[in-house]
Amino acid sequence: DEVVSATPTYFQMAYEATANGASVIYVPVDENYVIDLDGISQAITPDTKLISLVNPNNPLPTCVHKTNMDAFINSLPSGIVVVVDEAYHHYIHTPDYGSCIRYVAEGLPVIVVRTFSKAYGLAGARIGYSAASSQYTNQIASSQMFGMVSNLGQAAAQAALNDTQHVIDTVTLNDQAKEILQDGFTNLGLDYIPSETNFIMFDTGTNASWVASELASKGFQVRTGWGMPQHIRVSTGLLEEMNEFIVALGEILGQDCRERKTPP
């Protein structure tokens, strides 16, 4: 059996597929860093059983628009299930985005998974949920391990669902933090990928691992990798932290990063 997935993307689905004996076919994102749905369609073979999508994506903070997703879902051969991870759906402001839960309501072979780890702030609880037809939920339940979700996690999730103001406040703070980062990158002459999540990927113009090490020495933890040697992913935080991050980045690369320092 085969699973088709974009790359780079969140690794967990591909990891689980490989652990269970399936092969994973990776399709690179397009020139705009968006999941290449046409490429994924072309990668489908008679052995393809599942397509894994993360929308918005991670570590690339882009999303697939509703019109493109509609065309993709409706063009798939029968016998293929699409799993869509919508961990970052709260942060989206793109008008042409639509949750894939609508496909579940229409009876299409789509499973949507979400987490309480992002906007709800329950990363330590390790809890989430899925939306799918009974055909798939029954199969999932039959293979579920005992004790996967704790009573504490369930109670926290129920409380989080009732606290809608917290989500509103979190998204508002995230928008403000992203604006600080984006303005800072622009002022420093750095390119970045417009974000529909709670993190931004930006181009350092130099060795990202070196920049990350220098940032760590100043108290900032960022992520590098994914076959993008000049890019860094930075998550949003408190507004004062974002301002301090931009100052630190300018000190490392030079105030005008068009004349960047080079790693020793």
TrEMBL record:
SUPFAM superfamilies named among the record's database cross-references: PLP-dependent transferases
Keyword Transferase: yes
Gene3D superfamilies, sorted: Aspartate Aminotransferase, domain 1, Type I PLP-dependent aspartate aminotransferase-like (Major domain)
Signal sequence interval, chain numbering: none
Residue intervals of the Aminotransferase class I/classII large domain: 1-246
Record has Aminoacyl-tRNA synthetase as a keyword: no
One Gene Ontology term of the molecular function aspect: pyridoxal phosphate binding
Pfam families membership: Aminotran_1_2
Keywords of the record: Aminotransferase, Pyridoxal phosphate, Transferase
Cofactor(s) listed in the protein's UniProt record: pyridoxal 5'-phosphate
Protein's name according to its UniProt entry: Aminotransferase class I/classII large domain-containing protein
Source organism of this protein record: marine sediment metagenome
